[in-house]
Each structure stands twice: as C-alpha cells, then as structure tokens.
Design a protein that fits this description.
Four Helix Bundle (Hemerythrin (Met), subunit A), 7 helices, mainly alpha, 176 residues
Length: 176
C-alpha cells in the first residue's frame, strides 16, 4: 500500500472507529490509559527528532528505531480496547499491517543513505520496533519542547481529549 495513503486513510479509519464504537465505562477505563501512554511515547520521540536533518538516537530512539510508531501502535491498541469493538480491533490491525512495515523499511533506507556511519552503529545496537529495556547505541539527541512544537505533535495531544469525549458520548448513545 503506498505510504502517501497512510494519513488520509488513518483519518477515514478514525471515522469508522467512532461509528463502530460501543464503549463502556470499563472499556474506556482500560483503553484510555494505553492511549495516553502511546501519546506520551510519541511526545517523547517528537522532542528528539529533527526530520531529515539529524539522526535521532537519544531518548526513546535508544530503545527502538521507530518510537513514534511504537507510540502510535500503543495509542491505536488503546483506542481499539476503549471502543469495545472487535471490528475496530480488526480494522486497526489491518491498517497497521498494511502501512507500517513498508513505511519503516522506506525510512530505514532513507536514513541509511543519508547518515551511513551513524545509522550503521545505531542499527547494530537498537531494535527496529520492539523496544529494548535499556538504552543502546549512540545517544546524541536531546529532548526539546521546541521540536515537539515543530513536529506538530501537539495536534495529536490536543485531539485525544476530543476523541475520548466522542467515545464517551458514543457509549451513552449506544446505551439509549
């Protein structure tokens, strides 16, 4: 699946998620903390990355070469749990399986070309996705809130309370 479709189809999936959701207070209580954890990981990663300019190897990038995607998966799994819908869970799995492996390969290829020696050292010490428990590799990047702003991660952080409210309202409608 072409990676340029990832974001527009992600928005479409979001609409499907809200439509198919049948959340309960229990499913929200289980799923929303995982959503928050996913966004915390994304914020942490966004504060380290200067896209295409410098290879980020510090913070969460010392645990996984793709911490933004780790955060996205946690966020999406939490959302799927919060909706209490097997259809949503299935759609989320299909979406991630369709896009993320190829996107991670494309990005690795780009970074390997752009930062050959730095990437080789980092790749040897840090796993591609599932985080290692202790940091590894060169840890040169430092967290900056200015990078979080520049990477516009605040948009996701701001949208999450709206999504939580929509799910709560959807749950109330489902009870009626």
């Amino acid at each position: 699946m072409p990676s340029r479709l990832r974001v527009p189809l992600g928005w479409a999936l979001g609409l499907v998620v809200v439509y198919l959701a049948r959340p309960t207070l229990r499913s929200l209580a289980v799923g929303l903390p995982l959503v928050a954890l996913g966004e915390i990981v994304r914020l942490w990663a966004s504060g380290h990355i200067e896209k295409t300019q410098v290879l980020a190897t510090g913070g969460p990038y010392a645990h996984s070469r793709n911490p933004l995607y780790v955060g996205s998966v946690l966020l999406a799994l939490g959302l799927a749990l919060a909706t209490a819908s097997l259809w949503v869970a299935g759609a989320v799995v299909v979406y991630f399986a369709a896009f993320y492996p190829s996107v991670m390969r494309e990005e690795a290829h780009f970074l390997r070309r752009k930062f050959p020696s730095e990437y080789r050292d980092w790749e040897a010490a840090v796993p591609v996705f599932l985080p290692r428990p202790t940091p590894g590799g060169p840890r040169t990047s430092r967290f900056s809130w200015a990078r979080v702003r520049a990477n516009k991660e605040w948009r996701t952080a701001a949208a999450l309370p709206v999504v939580a409210a929509l799910l709560w309202a959807r749950g109330l409608l489902a009870e009626s």
